[in-house]
Amino acid sequence: MGDCETMRNPQKGPPIFLGPSGHIFKKAVLDRQFDRAAINFYLRYGELPGLSLREFLSRIERAVVFETLVRTHGSQKETAELLKVKKQTLNWKVKKQHIQITKQIIKQPE
Q: Across-strand partners of 5?
């Protein structure tokens, strides 16, 4: 999950992305970079003894869901929007992955 903004040329062409450092990327370039990063990550950490592809993907999914929940301060609605999934789907993933969300009271009512 990057901090990229999407811009679309209204006249033609695929969307382009503005990265956090101001660089402009085309979707194809980002796709290739993501694919390379994913395979390098898998080659480095995914070939652990006894770790299946299913378990590896489950761990990646849990990390992404968890970190996005942290970024949104536990808001499942915002997290679902960022991850582009339905809120019900996110809720199911949170339960399946045994992620516990607690809300903390900041201020007492007056």
A: 18
